[in-house]
Amino acid sequence: MSCEHADRPRLGSKAAFPGRLGFFGRMRVVLASMWRKASGRYSLIVLAVWILVSLVSRFWTPVPIWTTDGYRIWRAPSRDHLLGTDGTGADILSWLMAGSATNLAISFLAVILSGVLGLLLVMAMVSHRSGVSQTVVVLVDALISLPTVLLALILAVPLGPSIAVVVVACGFGYGLNLARIVRPQALLAAESDYVQSARHSGVGSFRIFCTHLVPNVIPVLCVQLSMSAGTSVLAEAGLTYLGVGVPAGLPSWGHSLTTSVKFINVFPLTVLWPGLVVTMVVVALNLFGDALRDAIDPVANPRLRAAVAAAGRSALRSEEYQEASAQLDDSDHHVDNAIHAGEGGNDVAEY
Amino acid sequence: MRLTDDAPADPILTGKGLTKVYASTGSGMARKAAVDGIDVSLLPGECLAIIGESGSGKTTLSRLLLGQLRPDAGQVAYEGRPVLHGSQAAKALARDSALVFQNPFASLDPRWTIGRSVAEPLLAARRRGSGHLWHRRQDGTGLADQVAKVLSAVQLDPDRLMTAYPSDLSGGQAQRAAIARALIVKPRILLADEPMSAVDVSARVGILHTLQSIMAQSRQQADPSNGMSMIIISHDLGVVQHIADRVMVLVRGKVVEEGPVNAILNHPKQSYTRQLLAAATL
Q1: pTM of the entire structure?
Q2: Which of B92, B94, B164 faces A200 most closely, judged by CB atoms?
Q3: Span A182-227, pLDDT tens digits
Q4: Which chain A residues are Cβ-neighbours of B112 within 8 angstroms?
């Protein structure tokens, strides 16, 4: 059986199946679609600046963050200190720049953790093994009642204040929320006729989950994950204020807020800047989720559908495809053999 | 029977005493048998139509026959071998059969191109046939070519529709794409569950012609025992008359009448069948 496959003329991956837009081609269309909306433009600009500042701050800040000047504390914005100084005479702008890297890392890791955990839970929750699905549903409902702050406080006992506490507490809490919100959509897809057809064709459960269920929950996933990223920025500020978040000495936006908030009545500007940055970023993340949902979903984005169709048409017209197609006309029987090959191994899904 | 061979062929698929009882949702209500002790057989190259009112057990019976549901009593046999859960016969039946559903848009993944959806069963079949990882790397070869051919066979333009999404198609086109998806693996049994009830009248004619031509091609094969058999579930007696060889009339999970299509539709013996025919001519 396998030899027949080996004998068949080979096509390049693109010519073998037209209509699959590559990752970079797809991203180009998605970003262009996002850019067409004001909310998408705002979110892309803010997020690009955030990433850029995080990278730059690793090598350069206007004033080295550990440089303090006891004679220039609580200063208003000036040419030397564009956003002023804090209670130790440190440059607020430099600390915000340095803190952006910490917050970016926390948001990124929390999103990854919540996404992976949420999808694993969804996979179990839509399983056709009712024992597994019902147990996981009850487990998620029970664990979701555990507040993120309480979880962070518990984790801080053995670990002490650290980035890991924020990431794990946020990732765990948001992962549970994600699973609960995505489950109905995933169940709809799991019980659809196209999944039933795929299962009947012998497509395995894991493949069905990855290729049918995940793409069909991506719109919900985009919104939820972007909200998780935004909420993790807020959670970092809150947990750091409580003393279980980012440890002292590591710059973060939460830290900038914590050190200044006691003096808000006297020096409101020192609280305003980090507060403004956090607000701008959280709004950008929320808008990013909405814009990404509309752009990445081929059902909602006609530009993406048109780009896929155009890519497919050009692939079908390509010389490589035409030549290989002509060769394949002579080797049809190989395909028939392949279809009826292999008595065993029909992966009848117990999904 | 429109089969050409004189000698009666062995049935490709049989069901003996098939019973399926669904749990009642209300407390104190009796459990209802959706399918109640039905005997059924399907010959190679034959088109069997199952008709009956809504809730008569047509879909349940067809799912039992294709091994998608487990019967509470009775047994299904494929090529004489009992279809038990996880058995070789069950795997062979799943491999050799394909489904066409009522709602064409629900049977195609809205986020997949038509080409990718149509290719999926073929790709799955190739994966089964090439267990070694080295050969799995070649899974994609020639897929587009095969998809283009099967789309052409159901009168769809592959150049235009292979890379389209289901939302770009009309109901009739989507249903023909769903039929193409079923046909790409050259199944021995095709189950069409009310394939024309969710599309408009003009699309129905196109789909009917597609199914007729597929059955005609299947019957023209050198060896009729290798022809494709079809189970069609339909409310539309006009469709049944055009395509079916044999008709089975179900009422509340039981077969009330069965026989050649012309005999049943022209000279029905049961009052229920007469009522059904009268309703269809309204």
Answers
A1: 0.81
A2: B94
A3: 999 999 999 999 999 999 888 989 999 999 999 999 999 999 999 9
A4: 215
CA A41 to chain centre: 18
The residue among A346, A347, A351 with the most chain B CBs within 10 A of its CB, best to mutate, is A346
Residue among A130, A197, A305, A323 with most chain B CBs within 10 A, to mutate: A197
For chain B, how long is the longest CA-to-CA vector?
62
The 10s digit of each residue's pLDDT in A93-111 is: 999 999 999 999 999 999 9
Domains of chain A from N-terminus onward: 1-36+301-340 (no CATH), 37-71+79-300 (1.10.3720.10)
Using an 8 Å CB-CB cutoff, list chain B residues near A315. 144
Spatial separation of the C-alpha atoms in residues A286 and A276, rounded to whole Å: 15
The residue of chain B with its CA nearest to that of A189 is: B109
Question: How far is the C-alpha of B273 from the C-alpha of B282, rounded, in Å?
Answer: 15
B111–A200: do the CB atoms touch at under 8 Å?
Answer: no
DSSP string, chain B: -----SSPPPPSEEEEEEEEEEPPSSTTPPPEEEEEEEEEEE-TT-EEEEEESTTSSHHHHHHHHTTSS--SEEEEEETTEE--TT-HHHHHHHHHEEEE-S-TTTSS-TTS-HHHHHHHHHHHHHHHH--SHHHHTTTTTTHHHHHHHHHHHTT--HHHHTT--GGGS-HHHHHHHHHHHHHTT--SEEEEESTTTTS-HHHHHHHHHHHHHHHHHHHTSSSGGGSPEEEEE-S-HHHHHHH-SEEEEEETTEEEEEEEHHHHHHS--SHHHHHHHHHHT-
Interface confidence: ipTM more than 0.90: no
Q: Residue B142: which of A218, A308, A335 has the nearest Cβ?
A: A335
Q: Hey, which CATH number is domain B13-104+188-280, 3.30.420.40, 2.60.120.10, 3.40.50.300, 3.40.50.1390?
A: 3.40.50.300
How many CB atoms are closer than 10 A to CB A349? Answer: 21
Nearest CA in chain B to A215: B111
From the list A19, A201, A328, the residue facing B116 with the nearest CB is A19
Residue ranges per domain, chain B? 13-104+188-280
Instruction: Let me know: does B38 contact B61? Beta carbons within 8 Å.
Output: yes
